[in-house]
Amino acid sequence: MHQKTIAELSQALAQGTYSSEELTKHYLQRIKQWDTSLNSFITVCEETALASAKSADEARRQGKAGPLTGIPMAQKDIFCTNGIKTTCASKMLENFTAPYDAMVVEKLNAQGMVMLGKTNMDEFAMGSSNEHSHFGPVKNPWNLDCVPGGSSGGSAAAVAARLVPAATGTDTGGSIRQPAALCGITGIKPTYGRVSRYGMIAFASSLDQGGPMTQTAEDAALLLNAMAGFDERDSTSLDAPVPDFTADLNQPIKGLRIGLPKEYFSAGLDPAVGDVIMAAIKEYEKLGAIITEVSLPNNHLAGPAYYVIAPAECSSNLARFDGVRYGYRCKEPKNLEDLYKRSRGEGFGEEVKRRIMIGTYALSSGYYDAYYLKAQQMRRLISEDFKRVFEKVDVIMGPTYPSIAFKIGEHSKDPLEMYLSDFYTIAINLAGLPGLSIPAGFANSLPVGLQIVGPYLNDSKLLNVGHQFQQHTAWHQKIPSQFAK
Ligand code: GLN
Questions:
Q1: Closest C-alpha among 258, 224, 261 to residue 243
Q2: Residues that are catalytic
């Protein structure tokens, strides 16, 4: 069963090959058997999952089943779930249980999906390797000594090892696409505003976007159909009609104009990764695509702009965790100031504190103009680069991540080095564009992700372009041998 995609499972459920209860039990069993080695889940909710599976089977008997009814899935532990712990992988929220569901959770539950649990992540989604979790690092199923990528590393590892058919992730600067790339799965960061941020614990509000992490582009389209939509409880939610993201999947891509930004293929890219990407581009050429070189001359500004804007917004968003209203409170505070200082000092991990300090500094009077305003101006330049390029090409392609998965601990001493690895993904968030990562092959036996970026609101196009590749290649079907059986 676990070899199957959502589309296939959906068919099997409809034909009565097995019930949602059987399917759910199968995946719960796999989690029990394998997650001790992966650490991809923070919470597994066996009882509620089995209850939802039974309701899904009942709905089917009554003829009320949709395409996602009865399909098991997992939520990144950043989405609030009513009655089930939401920790954001932080000591700060270790015992926090939200009294409501995030919009994404509400919508997927409404489709009758079965939530198996909450996946591990970098604390408050800050990181690229999933080494910054209060609950310990997640392991890459292709090599347990390696990182799965971050911050949605638990979701990526769980899907790659087929402990769950699909999961949600969030992407502020690459956190859906990077772990998707390093674990060999498909992940899309939708156009900013497509998916409601209501109940998704905020990291950097102008960049955060939730999205699906799946085996295939087709599955991502199926999930995005359920996740997307206007929500008046999120002030940046996009009030635009939601298309059927599966409608264009089978459109031929003959004549598709693909731009390869020359800045993406320069120093810093592991040549073995570059070879895999170029082979994937060749495949597109065979399908009738036209390849041209393009330039994003301001791409080098993305890192500096992001690492001011994201920390600035995080320092403001995380101010609410003060030991009074939410989360962890220190023992025996001497006075109010001591309560604030120690609750935050003890509740947050190192990386989160580093970001809060950078952000607070950048926003402080005297530095605001020099850092925050400047970063916003750089953000404008970056967006304009994309606008110019999309006058000439339909999509941009390149690597999602500059290397294959590295060893746990290998880069953790140097935060700057880790920030640089976001080179290919963060500009997309700064510009609010949709970005997809699909499995493109292997280098040194580890997966490589191809990133496909399109103009604003062209999510369907990306899924079409990803799906067509997956109709002609089999990289997305590869399962790490240890987890295949
Ligand atoms: N790696 C980036 C960071 O650490 C992006 C994280 C994310 O997308 N949530 O901020």
A1: 224
A2: 76, 151, 175
Percent pLDDT > 90 in the chain is 95
Task: Decide: 214 in ligand 1 pocket, CB within 6 A.
Answer: no
d(CA 51, CA 209): 30
Instruction: Give me the chain's average pLDDT, please.
Output: 97
Residues 79 and 12: their CA atoms lie apart, in Å, by 29
Q: Which atom of ligand 1 is nearest to the CA of 126?
A: 4
What does the H/E/C string look like for 82-137?
CCEECCCCCHHHCCCECCCCCHHHHHHHHCCCEEEEEECCCHHHCCCCCCCCCCCC
Distance in Å, CA 422 to ligand 1 centroid: 8
Q: pLDDT tens, 383-395?
A: 999 999 999 999 9
Q: What is the pLDDT of residues 159-181, one digit of tens each?
A: 999 999 999 999 999 999 999 99
Residue whose token pair is 């919009």: 103
Q: Which of 153, 134, 217, 300 is nearest to 475 (CA)?
A: 217
What are the pLDDT digits (tens) for 390-446? 999 999 999 999 999 999 999 877 888 888 889 999 999 999 999 999 999 999 999
Dist CA 316 CA 324 (whole Å): 16
Exposure b/e, 17-46, CB count within 10 A at least 16 = b? eebbbebbbebbebbeebbeebbbbbbbbe
Distances (CA, A) of 456 to 221, 248, 461: 17, 17, 11
Tokens representing 191? 């156009």
Please choose from 155, 168, 175 the residue to mutate so as to test ligand 1's pocket, defined by most ligand atoms within 8 A of CB. 175
**3-state secondary structure at position 303:** helix
DSSP states of 314-328: HHHHGGG-SSSSSS-
Domains observed in the chain:
6-256+465-483 (3.90.1300.10), 300-378 (no CATH)
| Owner of token pair 């769980």 | 158
For 403, how many CA atoms within 13 A lie in the half-sphere containing its CB?
17
Query: Cα(471) to centroid of ligand 1, in Å?
Result: 31
Q: What is the pLDDT of residues 245-273, one digit of tens each?
A: 999 999 999 999 999 999 999 878 999 99
Whether 168 and 210 have beta carbons less than 8 Å apart is answered as yes
Ligand 1 and 172: CB distance under 6 A: yes
Position 325 confidence tier, pLDDT thresholds 50, 70, 90? confident
CB of 299 sitting under 6 A from ligand 1: no
What distance in Å separates the CA atoms of residue 163 and residue 482, rounded to the nearest whole number? 12
What is the Cα–Cα distance from 394 to 434, expressed in whole angstroms? Answer: 13
- Give the ligand 1 atom nearest the CA of 152: 9
